[in-house]
Each structure stands twice: as C-alpha cells, then as structure tokens.
C-alpha cells in the first residue's frame, strides 16, 4: 500500500506543503494515542475554562490544541495559526508560507462516552505583511489543503489538496498512514439525512418543511423513505456522507437569537465544504455556497447544508420557494 508521504510526493504540490501535511498527520497519531488512553491517563472531563465561544473546554480540547500548536510552531512552514480554542490568531514564523486553521478535537462532547471525535484542519496561503486576523479572512476557495482525522475503531485521515479526496488509515503496527481509498466520490442521491432534531421547533420555515417531507417518507411529496443518522460530531457525520452519501445539516435557528448558527466557518465549514466539493458533493448555507463566503471574523459561524449533490439541490429548492434575498440575520 502507498504511504501518505509517497502519495503526497505524486501530487505535484510544493515540498513545504507536503512537509506541513506530514506534520499534521504525525501530530494526529499522538492525538489518537491520547484519545485511546482516555480515563487511564486522567484526561477525560471538563476544565474550569471556557473558549472564546463561551463553551466549556474539555481537558482533551486543551491538550490536543497544545499538541497541534507546538507541532506547527516547530514545523518551519507556518506563518500563523488559528484555533477554535484560541481567542486570537497566533503568529508563528515570519518565514512560514502557510496559515493553518483547526478544530483540535471536534465532537468533544462525545469524549466522555467514548464516541467518535476528530481533528479538522484547513491550510491557506500566507500573505505578505504583518500577520493579523485579517490575514486569515480568505474565502474557502483559497484553501490549498484541508482534511480531518477521525478517531474511531481505526484512525482515518481524509485529505484533499484540490485534486480529489483520499482516505488513509493509520496502521497501528507500523505507525504509517496508508492509502486505503483514492478518488472518494459522494453518491448524487441518498436516502439518509443527519440533523439535530431536538432543535426542530427553532428552524426556519424552509428547513421545517423540508425535514417534515423527509419524515413522511413514501406517503409524502418525496415518495421515498429516508433514514436519520446523527453522531453529534461533524467529523463523524461528514465521514459517513463521504463514505455512502447523505445530507448533513446544522441549519439556521432562533434557539439563541445571538447565535443563529452553530458551526465555525474557518475551522469546520470551509474545510468540510472543500472535501465535499472535491468528492462531487455540494455545501451551502441554504442561501450561499460555503466556499464563496467572504469571512468577516476568525470565529464566525455559519449554517451548513452539505452532502449528496441532488439532495442538497432539493433542499435548496425549499429555501428558494420560501425565501428570496440575502440570508436572514436572526
């Protein structure tokens, strides 16, 4: 089997990007080890701290954030980094050619029940001049690489450098990531959807109607039965979509009018949208293609609808019928 390093050497990308991606992969091996040790290492449970979004940090959130930050600072290829767990952007090296955004441990609410978690990352080109938050505010179209590492029964790296999506599985014996699936493609049609149904009463009318029609199955206007799946970790739900199709959505809601959107654009939505588009799927807010959004802040949140192209288009038809104009601000 081809190793990750061998695969990257064939992609005609800069050597500096290859080395950066290998650094991220190597760090994910250490994170995988930490996750597997769990309670044995005394690293489960919450801290007394909150991140910039006001969420209570898990111990592993902090540990994995430090692991990635330390590795990227030592890599020599990173100009600056931004993390869900950091209040501000972190300068690294004036000589660095890339900016890295990451969610060190997506799905951390699953940690204490031994369920799926993962690391999500996005790589952007560094720009000349002083490093500020503005340096990171590039649309998702500017990404030169993106991926995630899923820590489950096996540790899997999903990666794109803009030339399709490949899966690599960590061999626990050799410690190498081996190519186990190339040219990943999302099926155009699906009979599975993933959404947090507990928020149903807070959704906008288009999403209310769309999901209601899915639930009606063969007796409804879709004339087709759908199954619902929900892992409560974006990294796990998106991996399922990449493996067997589906639609995943965390839509706009008015549960908390100050936070109508759940997922972070720079750390979650952009890298996942890049992967999904490279695998033949679509990713949108319901009103705008995610990769075309011009970011306004490093911790900006957006609504997300992504997955099988035909099903995303159908969901968009509901939004077009119920609303026209700019995306609403709740």
UniProtKB/TrEMBL annotation:
Pfam families: FBPase, FBPase_C. It is found in: Cytoplasm. Residues 186-319 form the Fructose-1-6-bisphosphatase class 1 C-terminal domain. Its EC number is 3.1.3.11. It is an enzyme of class 3 (hydrolase). The keyword Metal-binding applies. Its cofactor is Mg(2+). InterPro entries: FBPase_C_dom (IPR044015), FBPase_class-1 (IPR000146), FBPase_N (IPR033391), FBPtase (IPR028343). Residues 9-181 form the Fructose-1-6-bisphosphatase class I N-terminal domain. It catalyses: beta-D-fructose 1,6-bisphosphate + H2O = beta-D-fructose 6-phosphate + phosphate. Pathway: Carbohydrate biosynthesis. Keywords: Carbohydrate metabolism, Cytoplasm, Hydrolase, Magnesium, Metal-binding. Belongs to the FBPase class 1 family. Homotetramer. This is Fructose-1,6-bisphosphatase class 1. It comes from Shewanella submarina.
